[in-house]
Amino acid sequence: MPAISIRAIHKRFGSLHALKGVEFQVEQGEFFGLLGPNGAGKSTLINIIGGLARATEGSIEVLGHDVVGDYRHSRRQLGIVPQELVFDPFFTVRETLRIQSGYFGLGRENDAWVDSLIDGLKLSDKADVNMRLLSGGMKRRVLVAQALVHRPKVVVLDEPTAGVDVELRKSLWEFVKALHKDGHTIVLTTHYLEEAEALCDRIAILHHGMLAALDTTKALLARGIGNIRCVNIKTSEPLAVIPESLQHKIKSQDGNSLVLQLNREEDSIVNVLDVLRNAGANVTDLETEVADLEDVFLELTAAGRS
Amino acid sequence: MNLRGIATLLYKEILRFSKVWLQTLGAPVITTLLYLLVFSHVLEEHVQVFRNVSYSAFLIPGLIMMSVIQNAFANSSSSVIQSKVTGNIVFILLTPLSHLEVYLAYTVAAVVRGLAVGLGIYLVAIFFVSLPVHNVILLVAFAFLGSAVLGTLGLIAGIWAEKFDQLAGFQNFVIMPLSFLSGVFYSLHSLPEFWQQLSRFNPFFYMIDGFRYGFFGMSDVSPWLSLVVVAFSLLLLALFTLFLLSRGYKLRH
Ligand SMILES: Nc1ncnc2c1ncn2[C@@H]1O[C@H](COP(=O)(O)OP(=O)(O)O)[C@@H](O)[C@H]1O
Ligand SMILES: [Mg+2]
Known about the structure:
- The complex is a heterodimer of chains A (306) and B (253).
- Chain A is an alpha/beta fold and 306 residues long.
- In chain A, the strands form three sheets. Chain A has a six-stranded mixed sheet, with helices on both faces.
- In chain A, a hairpin with a 2-residue loop joins β9 and β10.
- In chain A, α3 crosses α4.
- The radius of gyration of chain A is 23 Å and the shape is globular.
- Chain B is mainly alpha-helical and 253 residues long.
- Chain B has one domain.
- Chain B contains ten helices and no strands.
- The longest helix of chain B is centred in the first third of the chain and has 32 residues.
- Classes of the chains: A alpha/beta (306), B mainly alpha (253).
- The interface between A and B is medium-sized, with 32 and 28 residues.
- Magnesium ion binds next to α1 of chain A.
């Protein structure tokens, strides 16, 4: 039995067709990445899994329980960390977590688990502080704890690391990795390709409400995804003409800054610099940037065409 | 039934209003006592509604009931709209709590707030005005049912409204007129015929009339009729709210 089974899901918001027949399964114990640019429909899909939204067509099961017909069971198996940094300003961290645990029918016997979540997410010194007074990163950690109060088998994190500082991102990764080791099924949506690369066994890519790719991370990387990187080249003077051989690699150009999209295997930075120098450019600075998902899509669709 | 789940949501709702008790309990008690002070002082000499009942005494049950129902409404409606606007409603929507369980918790919390305010006013008022108690069971029944009706209406308004001013509109154009035109300040028989007939379609009238019967043993219509009307209103509104909740109306998109 799969952890999550998604069948022919369509979702319309009025005239907007946000999900167009999405279908895939997440196996138990998997670390699954759900990727896609803004507006692809990731959050909508997650909301349907959690019952926050209703599918227009299709059905979803969590560990065999239909998320509409058998929601009591599906929601007990499911912990969702929402994308939005929501919180209840009336309560402290501990109150928030104990109340959440109570909604699932758990009482004082669950307090020890709640305390261990507080510890595990490094919230101990904020446990009795009102939610309002917490930093964004702290609030994010409370959201993660809240999703786990009832010890769900399947954990879905909707962009948990967006807008989060490097330190917290790392500690969240460690925490989620430990959850996965404990046997939890993890579904992670993210904007950071490197994050998905480092953590996920399999990746689904959603684009315009459709599944654009679904494969093991390894196989996707072998298809060249992840091989792209961007190089930001600064020159002393704005370039009048860009050499023919670099034309199709331009991502953006602004004054004396030129961003090229290169393939890690096929293009050599040294060659690129030589070409520029031969064209009379005086390169003053060079930075490489990690490719973001938008680049991956360009690459995916370009690869599909050629 | 997820009894512990209901109890937790109820506890959360009670904690929510009791953390700001000055605003949610203190203020309505004081406002109502000011009404009492002003109206009874001005009208005491001139108005007598029931034989052997002073106007101040006549006024108290109506004022108590008006506060009870207004606060019951305010509690569930403001809680739901706040949760919707801030987005933390998801914490409830993601749980296995059923429509009935959510309904019960919000409504009972509204009843608790309503009754707490009512009791507060009563305890202060009897210091100044002697007030008989004719039938305590009916009295409690009307306070309970009345606040449950308004707690339910508050839930409907909170679910329906998308912004705070829509909720304020509901409060100003539905709840306030109905509660002021329900016979808080007068007996039905002192109204012109047309208004008397109109009042009979106002469920709030039956709440106040029946509640007043609990104190004086006198009322405009039979307390049993009032009890049936109020209980039936509760039933209809509860079924409607359960329908909205089960459809996820304006909650689950
Ligand atoms: N409640 C809603 N009402 C109308 N449109 C919505 C709603 N929620 C999402 N959408 C639209 O659905 C599309 C998918 O959004 P979303 O699932 O949030 O994408 P993602 O999480 O991948 O960034 C977007 O075009 C968004 O504007
Ligand atoms: Mg999203």
